């Protein structure tokens, strides 16, 4: 089963990323990327096969926003700061729903660091769970990408269609689609692993 690679920090730009991305695409171990959501779009680097799937990370913009507003964050005890983070997630939600790439998960981060409140974070996650994160077909894409390469012939069907990544410190993931029958998971919205227990056997690795 292929792996999701978090190599975006080494890309240097969506077009400049082509040599790195094509090297990753040549490996049977890689079937997708962790990629940032920036400037209102899901970044897809040049050379990425059409069969790849993506875990969207919000950490770059989350840290930028905390840098300008120390109260910003889904775990903020400040009402305005938490509302600002939820407004930001509405932009992310719209992009994921209309994306023309296959989004496996969205990583959520519990800013702000020093004043984060667990109850505020749980309230934010509970609200996000009710938004409906499945893909909605659209004539316009909210993914930004460079030119693509010839799609990989590797069988993309081996990826589980419902995937929940074990949450790291201050993060949670959301899952879309369905799981193979051999790896059942709790139906959506159980992607909020910070709120509900992670279903057995549903990691993407």
From TrEMBL:
Pfam families xref list: DUF4862
Disordered: region residues: 135-205
UniProt-listed InterPro entries: DUF4862
Biased segments, Low complexity type: 139-150
Name of the protein: DUF4862 family protein
């Amino acid at each position: 089963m292929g792996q999701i690679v978090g190599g975006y920090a080494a890309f240097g730009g969506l077009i400049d990323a082509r040599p790195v991305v094509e090297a990753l695409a040549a490996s049977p171990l890689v079937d997708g990327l962790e990629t940032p959501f920036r400037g209102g779009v899901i970044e897809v680097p040049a050379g990425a096969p059409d069969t790849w799937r993506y875990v969207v990370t919000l950490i770059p913009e989350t840290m930028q926003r905390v840098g300008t507003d120390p109260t910003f964050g889904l775990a903020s005890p400040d009402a305005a700061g938490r509302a600002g983070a939820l407004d930001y997630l509405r932009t992310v939600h719209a992009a994921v729903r209309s994306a023309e790439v296959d989004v496996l998960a969205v990583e959520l981060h519990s800013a702000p660091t020093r004043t984060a409140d667990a109850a505020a974070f749980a309230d934010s996650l509970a609200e996000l769970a009710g938004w409906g994160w499945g893909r909605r077909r659209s004539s316009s894409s909210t993914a930004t990408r460079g030119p693509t390469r010839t799609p990989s012939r590797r069988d993309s069907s081996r990826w589980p269609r419902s995937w929940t990544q074990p949450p790291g410190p201050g993060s949670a993931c959301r899952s879309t689609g369905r799981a193979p029958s051999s790896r059942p998971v709790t139906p959506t919205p159980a992607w909020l692993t910070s709120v509900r227990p992670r279903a057995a056997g549903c990691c993407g690795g």
